[in-house]
Write a sequence for this structure.
């Protein structure tokens, strides 16, 4: 089935079955491999993208559900530069293996859109469904505060 | 290419000195003869560095990046000596071959083994560049110095960038013992340097194994036997072949592969297979049977260390105490599922592998395809979490076999369920300890026996040479405590399921048992567990085989962690502190204080962990802090909630819903105190892990009076009101 998608500001046409998870359309059809497979069941957050600015698990989102809404992936998060979250992630040296970080970043950026100055509890709630086996959570909290303009330390 | 020429010449001159595991070539007086046209224009004193005439500097990384920071820390060592900006250096991942006979990443060994070799590399190049400049300018060598990518002659103000000197320098002999920069001159070592792959990671450009699929490659999902030793009975692939995008279905040793145009089609095709396995080999194989196996083995354990009259001292001790501890199977569960790309078309094979063991991948693929080693090229990608899982080559061998079968480049991708079901698990183990205490409550004798499953990842258990087990059980054999009479016993057991190296390998279980038991002894003696530890660490260093156990370094971090944690200050009801420590492989010293809070409903929360580490000279302080934070999360995850179990030979836990991993809302405040020392670095990827679980269990006892002797603790601990007395039998 021929579907029309808007991804990172571009119109894309893809020939896929409608039930195909968005994750695999992004990775295997459009070549946007920054969005990761972690569990395929919405349990780890590695595949998180934004659809119309809201964080979604692309591994359990059928491509046909997306419709006309804009899909933003890690490749498009910063537009032509870096999103404040990406800059903060670098400033706090958050990543270790880094595999889960695109999903973390997409979720954190969506959080900051709704809550420009989140508390630790709000950060924990938003990112509580994201797994990081390297255990970078402490730095993620710091980086979200930094991106929110609150400096690096927890307020 | 020039690198090859260099190596060939070095080898021909008989001047190659192999320093395992990271090898450095030494030129010596090598190049004195026979220099002429066609010589390398690139300066490459060792396989780890290339400086080209165009000024480009390439540092070759001989370890795999799995988040532990080697692609930052190792180049820092070269760049420090060479005095180049890390940001201007290109990194190249080493491939197995003559230059790199051992690229294996494990044992917290990367910085430790590179410390001399890579500084030598940078220093040798710098000295050669200075010599080349001095001779070009006809000035005394002592008047020249290397500075920020150039050689400078201060008296005349002349300056030559490294690139302009590379060809001339390449013709010079490689100095055998180039002087290292003094500590005062260091600009990088000991500072906080941001991860070099950071920008690629946060923009999604970083290429992990799963992202390394070349254009046009196919994807394979494999149906494997659900039990160890299962054999394929029959397969009906008709429905799988009908799934759009599925190209073919092939049988390989150990599985049936569905090969498709996309990952999703491969997974769907694999789900549509109808496969019957003969599972009779695994009849009766469940967790209870494995624990029985270990219980039987521990009574047959053999001494690996035996000092003094243990039986006599135990018999005459006024008080004795014994306890048994159990450590469960654990999965690696890296966020990146296992995957590998292979292109075995023609009589060769090219792989893109997120591997910790590139040489093993090369060797096993060569064997599987009956190819010579040099026909197998292994490109090492970034690894989305390794923790020991990627020391195996099972995925690479599968990919290579499938690629050959379908005559196309193929990427094997494990689903998350595959990853859990076909891991090489951290093995289950049992530790039994007994001590006799004197009238002051101090141990006069101690026995520590352990039975653990052998790591099948490294081949079958070899019981023929008993000497092999020296050093085991880890944490028991190398106990840091002053024990006048000591016997340590070990029983390795052939594993009925796949087992392998896991973060900190055998240490977590042995240290869990030892540090919890010590806490029990302290409480029996009516003493503070911190003071009790410090008293037993007060003594001369111990010679163990050819190495020395340095108690004073451990004592120092124990005291530091306790001080920073405010040991002894009141915490309030339902809360407690626990301490544990360890000397990892007689090297890195770690002490951790865990604070725990037990809710009225029994919910366990860990608000704070204080760690003091002495890992020798810190290379990248950000890396050190990160590894400790990471080790704490690893330790808590596996102490609190996760374990792997078996039913009818099958792995029960197959998703993150069954295998709870610590999340951000449970993340404690982790405080890291790295003792500044000038000792050679001793590694930090693994050492922070082992003390976490016992410090947590000891904190739980302090908070509730409940002794935990079997992991995982579970998300729920019994509330204080229901607490049985100390010394109660282990729950299991």
């Amino acid at each position: 089935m021929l579907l029309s998608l808007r991804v990172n500001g571009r119109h894309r046409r893809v020939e896929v079955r409608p039930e195909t998870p968005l994750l695999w359309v992004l990775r295997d059809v459009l070549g946007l491999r920054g969005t990761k497979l972690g569990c395929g069941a919405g349990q780890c957050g590695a595949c998180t993208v934004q659809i119309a600015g809201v964080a979604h698990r692309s591994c359990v989102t059928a491509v046909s559900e997306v419709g006309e809404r804009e899909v933003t992936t890690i490749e498009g998060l910063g537009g032509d530069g870096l999103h404040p979250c990406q800059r903060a992630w670098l400033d706090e040296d958050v990543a270790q293996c880094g595999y889960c970080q695109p999903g973390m970043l997409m979720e954190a950026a969506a959080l900051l859109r709704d809550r420009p100055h989140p508390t630790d509890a709000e950060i924990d709630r938003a990112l509580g469904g994201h797994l990081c086996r390297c255990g970078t959570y402490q730095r993620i909290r710091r980086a979200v505060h930094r991106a929110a303009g609150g400096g690096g330390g927890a307020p | 290419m020039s690198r090859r020429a260099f190596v060939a010449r070095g080898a021909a001159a008989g001047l190659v000195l192999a320093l395992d595991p990271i090898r450095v070539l030494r030129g010596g007086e090598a190049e004195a003869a026979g220099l002429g046209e066609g010589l390398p224009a690139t300066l490459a004193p060792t396989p780890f560095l290339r400086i080209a005439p165009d000024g480009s500097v390439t540092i070759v990384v001989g370890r795999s990046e799995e988040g532990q920071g080697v692609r930052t820390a190792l180049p820092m060592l070269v760049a420090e000596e060479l005095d180049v900006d890390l940001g201007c250096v290109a990194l190249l991942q080493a491939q197995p071959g003559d230059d790199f006979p051992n690229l294996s990443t494990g044992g917290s060994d990367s910085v430790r083994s590179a410390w001399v070799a890579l500084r030598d590399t940078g220093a040798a190049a710098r000295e050669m560049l200075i010599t080349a400049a001095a001779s070009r300018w006809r000035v005394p060598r002592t008047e020249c110095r290397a500075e920020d990518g150039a050689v400078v002659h201060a008296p005349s103000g002349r300056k030559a960038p490294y690139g302009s000197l590379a060809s001339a320098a390449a013709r010079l002999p490689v100095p055998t013992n180039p002087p290292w920069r003094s500590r005062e001159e260091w600009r990088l070592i000991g500072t906080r340097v941001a991860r070099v792959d950071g920008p690629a990671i946060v923009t999604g450009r970083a290429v992990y194994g799963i992202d390394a699929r070349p254009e046009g490659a196919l994807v394979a999902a494999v149906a494997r036997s659900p039990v160890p030793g299962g054999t394929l009975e029959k397969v009906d692939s008709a429905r799988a072949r009908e799934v759009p995008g599925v190209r073919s279905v092939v049988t390989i040793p150990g599985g049936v592969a569905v090969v498709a145009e996309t990952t999703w089609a491969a997974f769907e095709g694999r789900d549509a297979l109808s496969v019957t396995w003969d599972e009779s080999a695994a009849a009766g194989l469940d967790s209870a049977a494995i624990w029985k196996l270990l219980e039987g083995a521990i009574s047959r354990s053999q001494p690996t260390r035996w000092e003094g009259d243990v039986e006599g001292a135990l018999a005459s001790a006024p008080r004795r105490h014994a306890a048994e501890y159990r450590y469960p199977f654990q999965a690696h569960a890296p966020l990146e599922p296992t995957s590998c790309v292979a292109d075995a078309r023609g009589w060769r094979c090219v792989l893109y592998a997120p591997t910790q063991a590139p040489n093993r991948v090369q060797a096993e693929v060569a064997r599987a395809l009956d190819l010579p080693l040099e026909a197998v090229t292994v490109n090492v990608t970034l690894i989305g979490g390794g923790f020991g899982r990627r020391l195996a080559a099972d995925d690479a061998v599968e990919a290579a076999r499938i690629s050959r079968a379908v005559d196309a480049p193929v990427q094997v991708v494990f689903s998350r369920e595959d990853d859990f079901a076909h891991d090489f698990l951290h093995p289950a183990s049992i530790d039994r300890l007994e001590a006799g205490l004197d009238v002051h409550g101090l141990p006069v004798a101690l026995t520590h026996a352990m039975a653990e499953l052998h790591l099948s990842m490294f081949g079958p258990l070899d019981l023929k040479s008993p000497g092999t087990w020296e050093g085991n059980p880890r944490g028991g054999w190398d106990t840091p405590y002053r024990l006048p009479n000591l016997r340590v016993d070990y029983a390795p057991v052939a594993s009925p399921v796949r087992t392998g190296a896991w973060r900190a390998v055998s240490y977590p279980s042995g240290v869990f048992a030892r540090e919890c038991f010590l806490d029990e002894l302290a409480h029996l003696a009516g003493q503070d567990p911190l003071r009790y530890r410090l008293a037993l660490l007060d003594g001369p260093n111990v010679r163990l085989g050819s190495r020395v156990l340095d108690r004073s370094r451990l004592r120092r971090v124990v005291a530091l962690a306790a001080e920073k944690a405010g040991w002894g200050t009141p915490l309030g009801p339902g809360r407690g502190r626990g301490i544990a420590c360890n000397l990892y492989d007689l090297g890195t010293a770690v002490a951790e204080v865990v604070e725990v809070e037990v809710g009225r409903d029994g919910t366990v929360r860990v608000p704070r962990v204080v760690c003091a580490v002495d890992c020798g000279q810190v290379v990248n302080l950000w890396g050190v802090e990160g590894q400790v934070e990471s080790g704490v999360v690893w330790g808590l995850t596996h102490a609190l909630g996760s374990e792997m179990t078996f039913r009818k030979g099958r792995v029960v836990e197959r998703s993150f819903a069954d295998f709870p991993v610590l999340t951000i809302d449970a993340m404690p405040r982790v405080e890291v105190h790295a003792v500044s020392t000038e000792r050679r670095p001793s590694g930090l990827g693994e050492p922070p892990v082992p003390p976490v679980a016992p410090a947590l269990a000891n904190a739980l006892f302090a908070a509730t009076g409940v002794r935990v002797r079997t992991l995982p603790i579970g998300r729920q601990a019994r509330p204080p009101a229901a607490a049985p007395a100390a010394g109660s039998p282990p729950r299991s």
About this structure: The mean pLDDT of chain A is 96. Chain A touches chain B through 57 residues (CB under 8 Å). Strands of chain A lie at 2-7, 10-15, 48-51, 54-57, 70-72.
